[in-house]
Amino acid sequence: MLALATLIAAASINQGRAAPFAAVVIDARSGETLYESNGDARLHPASLTKMLTLYITFDAIRRGEISLDTLVTVSKNAASQPPSRLGLRAGQQIAVRYLIRAAAVKSANDAAAALGDALGGNEARFADRMNRTAVALGMRNSTFKNANGLTRAGHLSTARDMTMLGRRLFYDFPEYYNIFSRRSTDAQIATVRNTNRRFLDAYKGADGIKTGYTSAAGFNLTASAERGNKRIIATVFGGQSTAWRNAKMAELLDLGFGKARNDVDVRRPAPANLPAGDVEVASNPDDATQGNGNGRSAGKTIRLVTSLQTSPRPRSRPVSAEKVEATAVAVMAMQDGIAGALAAATAPAAVPTPEVPKAEIAAAVVVAAARPEPRPVVEAELAPEPEQIATISADTSEEVGLVSAVVPEVAPARRPAKLLLASSEAARPERPKAAPVIVTRVATSGGRHWGVNLGRFASRSSAERALMKTALSESTTLRDGLRKVVERKGGYDANFMGLERDQADLACRRLQARAVQCFTIGP
After folding, report:
1. Active-site residue among 47, 84, 142, 224?
2. Is residue 107 among the annotated active site residues?
3. Do 99 and 72 meet the contact criterion of CB atoms below 8 Å apart?
4. What would the DSSP string read from start to end of 265-300?
């Protein structure tokens, strides 16, 4: 019994030392390496693999291959993955958004495998896409065999490659980066908790990214933290325990913040030529995993092309001679009617109405009739931008309708439209001007009680300039925001208000990715 206990203890010690240690620390703003130890050693990445699976998923959403609401049919391959699991069943359908949450927050192996099967058709084909993507991103020493990082021969990466991938996630997909800092989230089947929550709660400024553990890999972590104008990203491979790994990561991040210079310009990673994928549509959901015997999955391969290739000019409509003649007659009749009304209204002044040759009218009609049909106006195009104000006068609405008739234009001194308006004004009795109607859009319902603060400025004009500059550079996420300057003790706060929580959070993440300091304001 004593010998057995000694053997077990020795095995435990050896297991704790089995995974080699490696670490890399970089300045996220420039990509400069601040510290490394065995940075290029090819080791087992474990669930850090899921960072690449999620990167490919985000890219597929951006390309239009899938959407957050796409329903994925869970294959037997995904449902059979060992823990950590969300609890997926073969044949079950679940939206992509929930698979992303489960893979990023809970590190669920079945969720990551389901994403891989949906995007690649089967595990082998998705692994091929992972490897091609890794090459495109500059991950030179990584090879992948599956979507979740479970130990497999040849499934290896390095601390340097994973740190580089963490930086790519932050800069390439800032709209999704906040998911890595959520302590818990709804994954439809269950509310899942973050495997990295201890470190996120313990280290000041930490906001991601991903943990990983297998017996072969040890305790791995890629983490990112921001303090002041500095952001540091680091990776640890081969930790001996969760507590040891977290303590080592805190030490490495402190080292990074100490070595990183303040006057560093943000140099975003260059755009990568990422490989596209095919969306597999199979009659049997398991065909996508089992294949058809020749290395390809059964079913129809559909490549979605969502970008506009050409924008041809509309062709002119053919105009018949009968239509030209009929339109010319109508225009000439309209001219006679306008001339009669003008003569009656301006009898004291005896202003003559200039005549336009009928040949010129007919020529103008041909040109007007040959113009293409105006495209329909979509309702969204009519919506005013935030803080846009339109003033509508009740007195001018009739005049606008009156001058919409076709009136031939002559010398500037004798514009019939102006005379017509003057005569109409003289003929009408005097009436008081209606108060202008102010139309604006400030949404305060639907949970829009959040905002984004850009900081405190010495003057109101400085705060307003900062708001305007930010609104122009980040119009996508702040289009619904109301710019507001609030006078405080010691300065003026520049705020965007009237946002939903997700909008405010996303806007702040995107701004921080461009080195713009901000924080969200809650209700």
Report:
1. 47
2. yes
3. yes
4. ---PPPPP-PPP--EEE-SSTTHHHH--SSSS-SSE
Residue type, 369: A
CA–CA gap between residue 80 and residue 342 (Å, rounded): 86
50 is catalytic: yes
Judge whether 86 and 79 are in contact, CB under 8 Å: no
Helix (H, G, I), strand (E, B) or coil at 153: coil
The 8-class DSSP code of residue 138 comes to: T
Query: At residue 460, what are phi and psi to the nearest 5 degrees?
Result: -65, -40
pLDDT value, residue 325? 60
What pTM was computed for the model? 0.56
Rounded to an integer, what distance in angstroms lies between the CA atom of residue 154 and that of residue 115?
Answer: 21
Q: Is 393 a catalytic residue?
A: no
pLDDT digits (tens, 9 = 90+) for 250-294: 999 999 999 999 989 999 999 999 998 765 433 344 444 444 333
Residue with tokens 């996120």: 200
| 342 — pLDDT class (breaks 50, 70, 90) | low
Beta strands in 375-462 (DSSP E): 390-392, 437-439, 450-457
Which of 50, 145, 210, 248 is flagged as catalytic? 50
Q: Respond yes or no on whether the N-terminal peptide bond of residue 26 is cis (omega within 30° of 0).
A: no
Catalytic residue among 75, 107, 297, 423: 107
Residue 206: name the closest of 193, 221, 220, 223 by CA: 223
Residue in the block written with tokens 């009740």:
394
Q: 379: which residues sit within 8 A by CB, 6+ positions away?
A: none
Is residue 286 within 8 A of residue 76, CB to CB? The reply is yes
User: Which residues are within 8 A (CB) of 258 and not within 5 positions of it... i.e. 6 or more apart?
Assistant: none
CB 302 within 8 A of CB 277: no
DSSP characters for 64-116?
TS--TTPEEEPPHHHHTPPSS-----TT-EEEHHHHHHIIIII--HHHHHHHH
Q: Are 89 and 66 in contact (CB under 8 A)?
A: no
Residue 511 in tokens: 């701004």
Q: Is the separation of the CB atoms in 214 and 46 below 8 Å?
A: yes
Contacts of residue 100, Cβ cutoff 8 Å, sequence gap at least 6: 54, 57, 68, 111, 115, 176, 179
**Token pair 């992303």: residue:** 100
Closest CA to 470 of 517, 410, 419: 517
